[in-house]
Design a protein that fits this description.
By secondary structure, the protein is of the alpha+beta class. It is built from twelve helices and 18 strands. It has a five-stranded mixed beta sheet, with helices on both faces. Strands 13-12-11-17-18 form a five-stranded mixed beta sheet, sandwiched between helices. The protein binds adenosine-5'-triphosphate and magnesium ion. Adenosine-5'-triphosphate binds next to helix 6 and helix 7. Adenosine-5'-triphosphate binds at residues 23-26, 82, 169-172, 192-194, 218, 221-222, 225, 299-301, 303-304, 326.
Amino acid sequence: MLGIQRLKKVLNIFSSGVAIDLGTANTLVYVHGKGIVLNEPSVVAIAEIHGKKQVIAVGSEAKQMLGRTPGQIQAIRPLRDGVIADFDVADEMIKRFVQKALGHKTMSRPVIVICVPSGSTAVERRAIQDAADNSRARKVFLIEEPMAAAIGAGLPVNEASGSMVVDIGGGTTEVAVISLGGIVYARSIRVGGDKMDEAIISYVRKNHNLLIGEASAERIKKAIAAASVPTEGEGLIIPVKGRDLVNGVPKEITVTERQIAEALSDPVAQIVEAVKYALENVSPEVAADIVDKGIMLTGGGALLRRLDNVLRDATGLPVSVAENALQCVALGCGEAVERIGKFENVLTSMY
Ligand SMILES: Nc1ncnc2c1ncn2[C@@H]1O[C@H](COP(=O)(O)OP(=O)(O)OP(=O)(O)O)[C@@H](O)[C@H]1O
Ligand SMILES: [Mg+2]
């Protein structure tokens, strides 16, 4: 039905296979035969010029504008919680990223493999497929995000043995177990890097009466955050600037690793719970496989320091952080494009 044989031929002739990791925080584009050629924040800046909305920047350039735009310009993140929240803007963003990745001169229409969160509804999947379709695709295939993450992390997805992958992105954490090329367990919770940033914002507001933006919270997280408090002392320290809520003027304070770890205790606990719940709900055979092979962490959230230790303590299992954690999904989607025959069973289509 999907015409995989014919597509293999098309891919070989035109070499125009494109894989997209459409993430809440970052979008990566992989081009057949080249690898990852684009890695940009999922942000679009739009201006209202003579009553008409126009895209003025996408990616890194647009992210710089988040929270800093004058009245007539808006910097938008078209994805929230792993799914498309603003279809027109997401559509435009994908079009531009694909164009940039392929170069303007290309005439051929690519076959696109794009990931969808495992918990997404049919409507949400169709929205992602339609958005990819609109970027002049010849044919679009969907791949479950945790499947792509597992392939990208080098897990043996086609073997008759369960592999557990936990992909912690900006919008969602997906916990999945994969065996024989299929997903035997998957659960997605709407907790990830964004919820951690929100927790930092609310901690700083409550404890320091200081209002900080999303970008500052993310900066603090990347610089000093950890999933558990330091064994002793306050740990790392970082200055933070924002607006004083008492007298309304800009102010600088310092926050510590211990404070930020405490601020993150809730999102971290939710991730731990999701992993424990998964372990309790897989078959005994699969549980036995996971005891041997452990748990693989992927996605930007996997870089949160000591998260692997926290999960190891909570489960008693080996936990590893994938090499290239931020790129696993794109590499996995890319692998599916490169070897469409081998991974035919993991690709689906809404049409
Ligand atoms: N060193 C780090 N420590 C903690 N978090 C980090 C670190 N580096 C990146 N992140 C966070 O990882 C998130 C981005 O990860 P990733 O690119 O995997 O998400 P995404 O694929 O865009 O989102 P999703 O899969 O949920 O749609 C951001 O929230 C970012 O702040
Ligand atoms: Mg992701």
